[in-house]
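ok posting inputs for the flavin-adenine dinucleotide job
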Amino acid sequence: MSNERVLIAGAGPVGLVAGAHLARAGVPVTVFEEGADLSTESRASTFHPPTLDMLDELGAAKPLIAQGLICPTFQYRTKKHGLLAEFNFSAIADTTKHPYRVQSEQSKLTRILYEEMRDHPNFALEFGCEVVGASQDASGVDVTIARGGQRETRRGRYLIGADGASSTVRRAFGIEFDGFTWPDRLLVVSTPFDFFSVIPGLSSVSYVADPQRWYFLLQIPGLWRAMFLVNEDASDERVQTEEFAQSLMAGVVPGISNYEIAHTTLYKVHQRVAKTFKLGRAFLVGDAAHINNPLGGMGMNGGIHDAVNLAARLAPVWHGKAAEADLDRYDTQRRLVTLEYIQKYTIQNKKNLESEGDEFGASLRAIAADPARTRDYLMRVSMIASLARAQELG
Ligand SMILES: Cc1cc2nc3c(=O)[nH]c(=O)nc-3n(C[C@H](O)[C@H](O)[C@H](O)COP(=O)(O)OP(=O)(O)OC[C@H]3O[C@@H](n4cnc5c(N)ncnc54)[C@H](O)[C@@H]3O)c2cc1C
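and the output
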């Protein structure tokens, strides 16, 4: 029976959502994680309303909300004009059980899911197991793992590549990762400084447009994260110095400098989508399938939507209650909405923030003044519209 398991490469938020969903649906899963433990990197901090609805089905929304911040509003500002518009998710409260964003580190979600699942009879997670190769035949998949200097091969019925942007699974099956890498890098500076005390009416999620130096401010429990795009020629080493971070932070609130800085992290920024999300018995989900800039918080959220879409199809197929062909719809639906929504809007969000904000500001104000347009807009930014579009694709 062991080679009937669904094998999952990667215990990030997306791999664990897929594993939890399948295990609860009666499908035995084994997750291989190369790390000795779950990652402590905070990276994603925004959970959108439909993602919270999905996590609720796994019993993970309540503990996540308890450890995070509920943020019903978000704002757009410019350095030049101040507040452009504020939006409140209460306008779409009839479409979701969670009409707000939750701000919480992704590393909290992975721990919640692992704690929930670790004793489940259908769930196994093996740490210190790097997936180094994969192949498939008509009846199953073979995954080569490296553990403690030894290699072994494990057989399963299906393989889910949830092993992040550099996915070994994607490479093993020769699936191209089309797109581009921005020349700019993203610097995240975390500080316990209380921005509410110096920026009147600030929202916990605020995007500030500026053609010279845009940034956004996101509150998480105990900290604010300020994210800047760095396009200078400065080396990675220099960009990660305290002095460099202080120089960027000094541009946030006039007259305030010398912040207490908890940490800084530098990221490359990409926009890439895999040529296919399904090849025979192998699937790609999350960052293994698509990566994008973090403006709008759609990467992990979209990945969790992939995981839920796939697991909801794979479980009935595994149990013999649905046709194998139904699995093709995973690729049809999720790849297209990744291109139509996640890639399109994250690129648009970046362009908007790089502008003076005049045209973009006028458009936002017009949306905010019209309840029907506000509703459509919130359906889009919350990603509910992308899920509806996926369903339309059949
Ligand atoms: C600064 C920043 C802010 C962001 N903010 C947001 C946000 O607010 N909202 C949002 O939706 N997204 C956000 N993102 C994107 C988000 O972080 C990613 O989309 C998310 O981490 C993807 O999850 P994942 O599980 O697919 O991959 P990962 O989180 O990368 O997890 C992959 C896991 O696989 C393991 N692994 C890798 N290779 C192997 C292997 N060969 N064998 C076994 N295990 C392996 C890794 O150790 C890791 O545990 C942000 C990204 C950045 C950089």
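notes: The mean pLDDT is 96. Residues 2-74+100-178+270-355+383-392 form a domain with the FAD/NAD(P)-binding domain fold (CATH 3.50.50.60).
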